[in-house]
Specification:
Blueprint: E1 4-8, H1 15-18, H2 24-36, E2 41-47, E3 58-59, H3 62-66, E4 77-83, E5 100-106, H4 111-123, E6 127-132, H5 140-153, E7 157-161, H6 169-182, E8 188-192, H7 200-210, E9 216-220, H8 234-245, H9 252-266, H10 275-282, H11 287-295, H12 301-310, H13 313-316, H14 321-332
Parallel strand pairs: 1-2, 1-9, 2-3, 2-4, 4-5, 5-6, 6-7, 7-8, 8-9
Helix pairs in contact: 2-9, 4-5, 6-7, 10-11, 10-12, 12-14
């Protein structure tokens, strides 16, 4: 049976809710309690060029992360995400801590350049996760090209990224089959979902059922924290793996995070199911289109659905604020 692992991305993907401003002490406590919960990976935030603020889970260099990782006995591994094109290679020194991985997210249009960037990171000694955004929008041939590239330079993992929250179990199954049949068996498969259709948990369970040989890594966040519809809840997947796979996770430390760090944020800025994000997923549109409707208090479901259907196919996957504003104004005339 496959080894199933959890990667908690609260400090990174959850940061879209509060602009990554968790507070330095809270960042420390979240990491400590996720370690105490025995989670396999903690994604601690983004690696970018923004001026460093110790209260935010945004880092200018890896040394700034090191001060949060003082539990040397923990078996937990750590990661930071780089959006391709937002962090220069020369800013990264040779890897000195093999417990820190880098996850590189990229758009399909930057695929070839991103692969070269990842190869260069591996030459510096870093373990790499490939995170192709909107993975489900790749054609069969594009996906094979990506897989063949991964087989050549061997990242730690290739991630299925459901950016739009639009994938259903059948989509997950078909994409898994394509990847599993062609990807080197020593490369793990990772799954990052968004809960627009309320299917994050079901899709994760689907993968856990069919991925019987390859290492599988499931992304989640505490209390599902994430923009819009949010993500798979860490507490749900922890309890499920304990009950059904005998996993050695601890639930109570995650509940402490909910009580002390996450729920106070939720009372100020909520996330979770909304029909705006549901409709953006149904129409396979970037979730920022849903965010536009929410922020502008557009609450007619039929109106929103008509607008999303009017977006040209080549504009659906990349958010265009001017376009959505124009379409809304036209429809109001």
């Amino acid at each position: 049976m496959t080894k199933i692992k959890i990667l908690d991305c609260t400090l990174r993907d959850g940061g879209y809710v509060n602009q990554w401003n968790f507070g330095e002490e809270n960042i420390q406590k979240i990491i400590r309690n996720l370690e105490n919960a025995h989670l396999d990976y903690i994604e601690c935030g983004f690696l970018n060029q923004k001026v460093y603020n110790s209260n935010e889970s945004l880092f200018q260099n890896i040394n700034q992360l090191e001060k949060f990782l003082y539990n040397k006995s923990s078996e937990t591994l750590y990661s930071l995400m780089i959006n391709y094109g937002e962090y220069p290679l020369e800013n990264l020194p040779e890897c000195k801590n093999n417990k820190i991985f880098l996850r590189v997210a990229f758009h399909k249009r930057n695929f070839k350049e991103a692969i070269i960037f990842c190869e260069q990171l591996i030459e510096k000694g870093y373990g790499i996760f490939l995170n192709p955004k909107q993975t489900n929008l790749y054609t069969f041939q594009e996906m094979l090209e990506l897989i063949n590239s991964a087989n050549e330079f061997k990242p730690k993992a290739l991630t299925i990224v459901d950016t739009n929250g639009a994938m259903k179990e059948d989509d997950v199954f078909k994409l898994f089959q394509l990847i599993d049949e062609n990807l080197d068996k020593n490369i793990a498969l990772c799954f990052h979902s968004h809960n627009n259709l309320q299917l994050s948990f079901a899709n994760a369970k689907c993968l856990m059922k069919i991925c019987t040989v390859r290492e599988l890594i499931i992304d989640s966040s505490v209390f599902g924290m994430g923009r819009g519809a949010g993500n798979l809840c860490s507490e749900l997947i922890v309890r499920y793996l304990k009950d059904n796979y005998g996993a050695n996770y601890e639930l109570v430390p995650i509940l402490k995070i909910i009580d002390e760090q996450i729920y106070p944020i939720f009372t100020q800025t909520t996330w979770g199911y909304s029909f705006q994000y549901f409709l953006s997923a149904v129409n396979n549109c970037h979730p920022n289109y849903a965010k536009y409707f929410v922020e502008n208090q557009i609450i007619s479901a039929e109106f929103i659905n008509n607008i999303l259907q009017a977006i040209p196919d080549d504009k659906k996957s990349v958010y265009d604020k001017d376009l959505i504003k124009h379409l809304c104004n036209l429809s109001k005339v």
